[in-house]
Amino acid sequence: MQASKSTGRVKPQKLADIILAQLEAMIIEGSLKPGEKLLPERELAVQFEVSRPSLREAIQKLEAKGLVTRKQGGGTFVCDNLLNGFSDPLFELMSNNNESQFDLLEFRHGIEGMASYYAAMRGTPADFEQIQAKHDEIGNNQLEDDFRSEAEAVVEFHLAICAASHNAVILQLARSMSALLADNIAQNLTILAKRPDIFTKITDYRKRLLNAIISGEPQKAWGASHRHLAFIEEILLKSTQENSRMERSMRRM
User: Fold this and answer.
1) pLDDT-derived band at 92, boundaries 50, 70, 90
2) What are the CA-CA distances from residue 153 to residues 87, 170, 177 (Å)?
3) Based on the domain organization, do 171 and 95 belong to the same domain?
4) Domain HTH gntR-type: where (predicted)?
């Protein structure tokens, strides 16, 4: 409801604006993902129980805000560049910088720890089912022996945890960083591959995280996330030190 400035009377809110607010909420909470195609107008009108003209007006307003884009004959899509917080050159620069790799691990400590805590606290059975499915996909990708696809599967697992946190800021921030995080994880996996025994331990840490979330134990989930990343960080630091020693030895020779 809106108050009229001239009469002081309350004006009823337009139906299109109500639909607009609902669609915006779906984008914020992640029900509508970047790049996702909206249902046809006819189906959306049935879903919202509104007329097609009101729905069309709401979608036009979404488009004017830059939240969706229309493709001639192809439908309406949520814009896939909603959170371009980093330019491509900066992504590339950070991906190839050793110090940035550890900075990203520290970032993951914060974002994944919080997401795990709130996912365990607020997650629904449907959320847990999705997290379990994404966890299983990591194992399937490991069989392919492709670090890039495995890294992307790990990111999807953590995005499912972020979605289960039901915190829109955590989810959208993690999504905006997903490409950079996939690069970071792929590089980490390449380094860790020199120590095959490590992968079993990482898998075990990840299972503990999964179980803590599904069991609804927030503190345990936070701790499991921290221990998982602390272990990876420790191995990477040792590897970096060993490489540094080898380079010094080669220079002396």
Assistant:
1) low
2) 23, 19, 15
3) yes
4) 13-81
pLDDT at 84: 56
Residue reference for tokens 């607020």: 122
Domains held by the chain: number: 2
Residues 66 and 72: their CA atoms lie apart, in Å, by 17
pLDDT (average), residues 176-201 = 85
Domain region containing 73: 15-78
Which range, of 5-9, 145-149, 166-170, 178-182, averages the lowest pLDDT?
Answer: 5-9
Mean pLDDT value of segment 18-31: 84
Q: Residue 193: CB partners within 8 Å, gap ≥ 6?
A: 147
**Together in a domain, 96 and 51:** no
Domain final position from 58, 78, 98: 78
46: domain CATH number is 1.10.10.10
Asked if residue 128 lies in contact with residue 214, where contact means CB atoms within 8 angstroms, the answer is yes
Q: How far from the centroid of its chain's Cα atoms is residue 231's Cα? A: 22
Cα separation values, 94 from 103, 110, 111, Å: 9, 18, 18
Dig out the tokens for 251 from the structure. 């220079």
CA 202 to chain centroid: 20
Rounded to whole angstroms, how far apart are CA atoms 235 and 196?
Answer: 12
pTM of the shown model: 0.70
What is the model's pLDDT at position 72?
Answer: 80
Average pLDDT of the residues in 94-98: 57
**Tell me, what's the pLDDT at 134?**
97
In a domain, 115, yes or no: yes
